[in-house]
Amino acid sequence: MANIMYWEAIRRAHDEEMERDPLVICMGEDIGVAGGTYKATKGLYEKYGAERVIDTPISENGYTGLGIGASFLGVRPIIEIMSVNFAWLAMDQLFNSAAKVRYMSGGQLAAPVVVRSPGGTAHQLGAQHSARMEKVFMGIAGLRVVTPSNPRQAYGLLKSAVRCNDPVFINEHELMYNMKGEVPDEEYFHPLEGSEVVREGRDVTLFGYNISVHWCLQAAETLSKQYGIEAEVVDLYALAPLDRAGIAASVRKTHRAVIAEEDEAPVGVGAEVMAIINEECFFDLDAQPVRVTAVNVPMPYNHTLEKAAIPSAGDVVAAVRKMFGK
Amino acid sequence: MQRDLARQFLYDIELARRFEQAAAEQYAQGNIAGFLHLYPGEEAVAVGTLRAADVGDYVVSTYREHVHALVRGIPAGAVMAELFGRSGGCSGGYGGSMHLFDRERRFLGGYAIVGETFPVATGVAYWLRMNEASDVALCYFGDGAVNQGTFHESLNMAALWKLPVLFICENNHYQIGTEIHRHSALAEVYQRACAYGIDSRRVDGMDVLAVYEETREALHYVRDGHGPCLLECETYRYRGHSMADAGAYRSALEVAELRARDPLLTFTQRALEAGWVTQEEADEMGARAGREVEAAVAFAEQSPPPTQLDKDVYVRPLDLYRGDA
Question: Among this protein's residues, is A214 annotated catalytic?
Answer without folding.
Answer: no
